[in-house]
Automatic annotation (TrEMBL):
It catalyses: L-threonyl-[protein] + ATP = O-phospho-L-threonyl-[protein] + ADP + H(+); L-seryl-[protein] + ATP = O-phospho-L-seryl-[protein] + ADP + H(+). This is cGMP-dependent protein kinase. Belongs to the protein kinase superfamily. AGC Ser/Thr protein kinase family. cGMP subfamily. It holds the Pfam family cNMP_binding. PROSITE patterns: CNMP_BINDING_2, CNMP_BINDING_3. Its cofactor is Mg(2+). It is found in: Endomembrane system. Its main location: membrane. The lineage of its organism: Eukaryota, Sar, Rhizaria, Retaria, Foraminifera. One of its GO terms (molecular function) is cGMP-dependent protein kinase activity. InterPro entries: cAMP-dep_PK_reg_su-like, cNMP-bd_CS, cNMP-bd_dom, cNMP-bd_dom_sf, RmlC-like_jellyroll.
Length: 167
């Protein structure tokens, strides 16, 4: 969790220009590759803008409680591996995606080199939005199958079992 003050609460509806910019930033990111547009937008809407003061670590190498993904809105961040600078993130840079996918230690330290702002989303918010859209799509599929005459013999219990099997 970055050290700084929170600008925006999680889930506050964002301006279309901001949403489109964040979507462009995450377009080729591993975390978002398999998500459709609706899922991506729902995750972006859960992001919140956070200030990070120069010199503060937003990510610390080896941290095992990693649960946040970031998109750099402004400022810059150095990428340090074993205290050696190996790169830098600037506006539009994305980092922390492995924390949302896997429960593994952080691979690098990310330190703010200027007063900065990042959009962040937690693992729980990310997973909730992805699961919610899958659940909704499954419900829609079941409703469609109920209307297909070929499947009219299938009971309501089967629909429920089907739904919970694929959530």
């Amino acid at each position: 969790m970055p050290h700084g003050s929170q600008n925006e609460e999680e889930g506050v509806v964002k301006d279309k220009k901001i949403v489109d910019w964040i979507l462009e930033c995450v377009n080729d990111n591993l975390l978002f590759l398999k998500l459709d547009r609706e899922q991506r937008e729902r995750v972006v809407q859960r992001m919140r803008l956070v200030k990070v003061q120069s010199g503060n670590n937003i990510i610390t190498q080896g941290d095992v409680n990693a649960t946040t993904f970031y998109v750099c809105e402004s400022g810059s961040f150095d990428i340090l591996v074993d205290k050696v600078k190996v790169g830098q993130y600037k506006r539009g840079g994305c980092f922390g995606e492995l924390a949302l996918l896997y429960d593994s230690p952080r691979a690098a330290t990310i330190v703010a080199t200027s007063d900065s702002e990042v959009w962040e989303v937690s693992r729980n918010a990310f997973r909730y939005e992805v699961a919610s859209t899958y659940k909704q799509k499954n419900l829609e599929n079941v409703e469609f199958l109920k209307k297909v005459e070929l499947f009219s013999w299938v009971t309501f219990c089967f629909y429920i079992q089907f739904l919970f099997t694929y959530i």
